[in-house]
């Protein structure tokens, strides 16, 4: 049985991959046609072209693919490039192939329908990430977060039950931002909560958890009382942190509210209203840096990235990198390209600061926010008085891995690899 989350990752827009357990368990209508270098397998929902060498290379028997490590054992390079099966047939359980040396390979229809090549482009399902990047996400505006407050998640629930943890990660994946309430207002408790999610990312700011006030302990605007426009952190890293967590531990003063904006939602608005600007911010690479502290001079490799980063295979937007404060000198653009870039930047910033897109939260002590730093921009209003925020950065891959393993069964894991 495929879980709710599995059927979610199989969905992309209105297109749905055939769910094997439902479609093929009693199927008798599979037919095979053999050709010179490949076979065509016709299943009720689609026909798949399966090249022989590819089939042999992807044999999933325990000799060819370690069932526990899920790594290839077959030696691709000793297989004859012109290999052809000596026998093929299919039944209810799938496609069966016998190779000239007697080796047998079995391919379930679920696996074939997940990975087999289809002429029609119906196949372009973003199962690669097991959660279709933009179609299953809830793109939001401020009113969506205000009017539809999700069931409250509490520290106790998240710390003590797998269900609570799963709910938390699910919200993070769907909305890109999630709140946990009733957290004890200490750095220690916040760290426990953080480590429940995943291990932390060390940076030049700290070894793990950080805790900051307006004292310029590090030479960065975050350590002042100034307002911060909506931005993502770490635009100067080759790989920006995947998640960021904030917990306001102490506050005596005025202002200092937190701002969140759904970067994917605003990107979509820009694409619709000003496709030329969207294209410019997809193509124009922007150099960035972090260099306030004496012993720090960080720039990414490659030296610059666009604001909108797309998966080259699917075209899906997967990462927004934007911090106007951390932009380096634009020295690589001729005047006409500079003009196009600045115009596009103004259009992006206009939408980012549209009150309809700005979700403001006073983030009272006890309420921890965690957000996807590749999607949701954050900021704050200026403040007076004393304010201490603690939190952490998390690596992207490890956060996503945690989320995936909570949402997928072992069988589903096999299916998507
Ligand atoms: C979160 N912490 C207070 C540790 C650092 C804030 C750094 C903000 C910085 N300009 C950047 O984009 O990284
Ligand atoms: O002070 C805040 O509320 C957030 C500052 C900030 O942007 C950061 O620490 O990354
Ligand atoms: Fe920040």
From TrEMBL:
GO cellular component, one term: mitochondrion
Pfam families: GBBH-like_N, TauD
Reactions listed under catalytic activity: N(6),N(6),N(6)-trimethyl-L-lysine + 2-oxoglutarate + O2 = (3S)-3-hydroxy-N(6),N(6),N(6)-trimethyl-L-lysine + succinate + CO2
Ranges of residues in domain Gamma-butyrobetaine hydroxylase-like N-terminal: 33-111
GO biological process: carnitine biosynthetic process
Purpose: Converts trimethyllysine (TML) into hydroxytrimethyllysine (HTML).
Protein name per Swiss-Prot or TrEMBL: trimethyllysine dioxygenase
Gene expressing this chain: ABSGL_06207.1 scaffold 7705
């Amino acid at each position: 049985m495929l879980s709710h989350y599995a059927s979610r990752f199989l969905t992309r827009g209105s297109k749905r991959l055939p769910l094997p357990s439902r479609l093929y368990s009693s199927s008798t209508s599979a037919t095979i046609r053999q050709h010179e270098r490949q076979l065509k397998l016709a299943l009720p929902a689609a026909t798949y072209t399966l090249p022989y060498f590819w089939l042999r290379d992807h044999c999933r028997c325990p000799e060819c693919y370690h069932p526990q490590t899920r790594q290839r054992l077959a030696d691709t390079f000793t297989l004859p490039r012109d290999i052809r099966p000596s026998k093929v047939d299919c039944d209810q359980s799938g496609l069966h192939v016998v190779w000239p040396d007697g080796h047998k390979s079995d391919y379930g229809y679920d696996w074939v329908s997940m990975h087999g090549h289809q002429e029609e482009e119906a196949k372009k399902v973003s199962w690669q990430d097991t959660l279709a990047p933009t179609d299953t996400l809830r793109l939001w505006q401020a009113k969506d977060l205000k009017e539809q407050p999700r069931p409250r998640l509490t520290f106790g629930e998240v710390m003590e039950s797998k269900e609570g943890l799963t709910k938390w990660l699910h919200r993070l994946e769907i909305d890109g931002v999630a709140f946990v309430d009733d957290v004890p207002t200490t750095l220690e408790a916040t760290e426990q909560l953080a480590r429940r999610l995943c291990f932390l990312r060390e940076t030049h700011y700290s070894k793990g958890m950080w805790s900051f006030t307006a004292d310029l302990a590090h030479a960065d605007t975050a350590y002042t009382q100034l307002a911060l426009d909506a931005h993502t952190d770490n635009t100067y890293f080759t790989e920006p942190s995947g998640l960021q967590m904030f917990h306001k531990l102490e506050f005596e003063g005025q202002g200092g509210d937190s701002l969140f904006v759904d970067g994917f939602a605003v990107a979509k608005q820009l694409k619709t209203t000003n496709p030329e600007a969207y294209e410019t911010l997809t193509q124009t690479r922007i150099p960035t840096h972090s260099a306030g502290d004496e012993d720090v001079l960080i720039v990414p490799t490659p030296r610059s990235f666009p604001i909108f980063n797309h998966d080259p295979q699917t075209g899906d937007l997967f990462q927004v990198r934007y911090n106007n404060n951390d932009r380096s000198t634009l020295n690589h653009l001729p005047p006409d390209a500079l003009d196009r870039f600045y115009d596009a930047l103004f259009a992006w910033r206009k939408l980012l600061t549209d009150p309809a897109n700005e979700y403001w939260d006073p983030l009272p002590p006890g309420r921890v926010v965690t957000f996807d730093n590749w999607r949701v921009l954050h900021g704050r209003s200026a403040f007076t008085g004393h304010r201490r925020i603690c939190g952490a950065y998390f690596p992207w891959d490890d956060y996503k891995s945690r989320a995936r393993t909570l949402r997928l069964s072992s069988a589903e894991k096999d299916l998507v690899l």
